[in-house]
Design goal:
Length: about 270
């Protein structure tokens, strides 16, 4: 009886995995299709990747996507790290209030955030373009960085920074050389999540960008309105990059944690 239940559970799990990943596999496979058909595989070919690389609009979208993701990640990681450390030293009431405010952008529907930013930019007469998209990405990436660092900060001795300053360190040295190394896994996880969130964002980017600036998600949405197999190649590019960063977001913190544990035990 137990064996039958185990087989049934395994089969159900395999069906669920197939249901979730079949569209992704379908997109990747048909990105190598030799014909324009999106339903019949006529043979292996790299022509759609070649056309994607030769399309200036697509390459500009890839450039803006990577540039926005990198800048948003760097800025939100610095801001989020400083904010999380400062929040950990705040009064309990203030900490709870700010934590609730920080969770709001994460729980808030993206369409509501997008419309709110659109109205804000219109109210202050800011011309939509690369800068408005970058600011929006920094805004929704920073809470994820703070959320990734806070659990690590809770495990630290609250007197760690004071002890470092008693030994002659300046406040900045205590921050950079004592606190930051202790929360490095959380910082790395937050940065990788921020990059992933920024790289594949569509809803907010669609509402806050303009002046000929588009990211990959917007281009894919535009191309989906007509039959263009290059959309499969572009979508596959997104899948590969996001998959790599998701793997890194799990591997790097684990490796760093194992290294810290090894250093703590003296290599035993």
């Amino acid at each position: 009886m137990r064996k039958k239940k185990r087989i049934g559970s395994t089969a159900l799990m395999m069906l669920l995995v197939l249901f979730f990943y079949a569209p992704i596999l379908y997109t990747v496979i048909f990105s190598f299709n030799d014909s324009r058909s999106l339903t019949r595989f006529a043979g292996f070919s790299l022509q759609w990747y070649s056309k994607m690389l030769g399309d200036r609009t697509m390459m500009e979208a890839v450039f803006y996507t990577i540039l926005t993701a990198v800048l948003a990640t760097l800025i939100s990681t610095v801001v989020g790290t400083v904010a999380a450390i400062g929040l950990s030293k705040s009064h309990k009431i203030m900490k709870n209030i700010v934590s609730q405010i920080n969770d709001l952008p994460i729980m808030n529907p993206e369409i509501v955030t997008a419309i709110g930013l659109l109205m804000l930019y219109s109210a202050v007469h800011v011309r939509k373009g690369f800068l408005t998209m970058l600011l929006a990405h920094i805004m929704f990436c920073t809470p994820y960085v703070i959320l990734s660092i806070m659990p690590k900060l809770r495990t630290l001795d609250p007197n760690l920074a004071d002890a470092a300053m008693d030994l002659g360190a300046t406040p900045f040295q205590a921050l950079v050389k004592v606190i930051v190394p202790q929360v490095r896994p959380g910082i790395i996880s937050g940065a990788l999540i921020a990059f992933t969130m920024s790289f594949d964002d569509f809803v907010i980017s669609y509402f806050v960008t303009g002046n000929g600036v588009s990211n990959i998600s917007i281009i894919v949405y535009t191309m989906s309105k007509r039959i263009n197999p290059s959309i499969n190649a572009l979508s596959s590019l997104i899948i590969v990059i996001i998959s790599v960063f998701l793997l890194l977001s799990n591997i790097i913190p684990a490796v760093a944690q194992r290294k810290d544990k090894k250093d703590t035990t003296g290599g035993k």
